């Protein structure tokens, strides 16, 4: 079981525009998708696509929270959700050619009582703490949350990644910008140094170039060449696939190759709602596995 604990769940609205985005001008929407969102939900979709057991956990609120519950139920994803104050945030993705324009609300303030209720109901399994923190979350509160879990996986940024290192997380998943903010460098060697100092494994995502894993083993995988339709959620899909594969006993190199192929398939097919495991499996042969010479 993989438990996707998401501190700042959302309603995701993806809008296809009739022409390239121009600020200050009228645009018409030619296609609209509304879905339960947040990094943990995208991760859960990938795990389920491969036949794994997964559960989405977090706090929702208001009419948007009711909508979120209904959409998640309609997808058949298991959940542990608690009601809190305020409205679950909305995140907008505008597609008009090229990379999406994303507009994300901040979301409700941190609600410790509701979070405690969620934590008390989590099923047994690998907990993955996914995404941004709720507004106003005290750094010490997030650190305490992580310390109360059994070596969670953490996919966050900024102070969230720092807390993950301090708490002794089993693995973090930064992108290159997040790694640079954490260590001062986006180079793979900085991830290796971080692992040596902390014992926390690093799954470094590199966008269209692929990903790398740094732990007792060090591997890089170059992504296949694809025509990207919508890359939103590709990192979440990559992480979900990697964790599913590792839980199933796959060695790190093979798990990383499948994970990178899944991230590419997500971008190629148009996002997590359209992701298919078979498309990822078909792309695996187009990935390239590398072992850095300095290992």
From TrEMBL:
Q: Which family does it belong to?
A: Belongs to the carbohydrate kinase PfkB family.
Native species: Deinococcus humi
- Which keywords annotate this record? ATP-binding, Kinase, Nucleotide-binding, Transferase
Any one GO cellular component localisation term in the record: cytosol
Reply yes or no: does the keyword Aminoacyl-tRNA synthetase apply: no
GO molecular function term, any single one: ATP binding
Q: What is this protein called?
A: 1-phosphofructokinase family hexose kinase
Query: Is the keyword Kinase in the record?
Result: yes
């Amino acid at each position: 079981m993989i438990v996707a604990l998401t501190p700042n769940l959302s309603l995701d609205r993806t809008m296809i525009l009739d022409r390239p985005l121009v600020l200050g001008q009228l645009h018409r929407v030619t296609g609209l998708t509304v879905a339960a969102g947040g990094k943990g939900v995208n991760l859960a979709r990938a795990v389920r696509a491969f036949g794994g057991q997964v559960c989405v956990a977090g706090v929702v609120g208001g009419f948007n929270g009711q909508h979120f519950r209904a959409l998640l139920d309609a997808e058949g994803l298991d959940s542990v959700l608690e009601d809190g104050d305020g409205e679950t945030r909305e995140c907008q993705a505008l597609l008009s050619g090229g990379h999406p324009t994303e507009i994300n609300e901040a979301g409700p303030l941190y609600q410790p009582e509701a979070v405690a209720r969620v934590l008390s109901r989590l099923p047994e399994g690998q907990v993955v703490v996914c995404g941004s923190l709720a507004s106003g979350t005290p750094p010490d509160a997030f650190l305490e949350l992580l310390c109360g879990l059994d070596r969670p996986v953490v996919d966050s940024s900024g102070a969230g990644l720092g807390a993950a290192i301090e708490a002794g997380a089993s693995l973090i998943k930064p992108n290159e910008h997040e790694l640079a903010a954490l260590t001062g460098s986006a180079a793979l060697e900085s991830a290796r140094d971080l692992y040596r100092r902390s014992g926390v494994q690093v799954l470094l995502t590199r966008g269209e170039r692929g990903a790398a894993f740094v732990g007792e083993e060090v591997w890089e995988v170059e992504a296949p060449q694809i025509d990207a339709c919508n890359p939103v959620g590709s990192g979440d899909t990559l992480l979900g696939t990697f964790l599913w594969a590792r839980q199933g006993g796959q060695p790190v190199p093979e798990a990383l190759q499948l994970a990178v192929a899944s991230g590419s398939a997500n971008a190629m097919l148009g996002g997590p709602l359209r992701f298919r495991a078979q498309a990822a499996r078909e792309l695996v042969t187009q990935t390239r596995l590398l072992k850095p010479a300095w290992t």
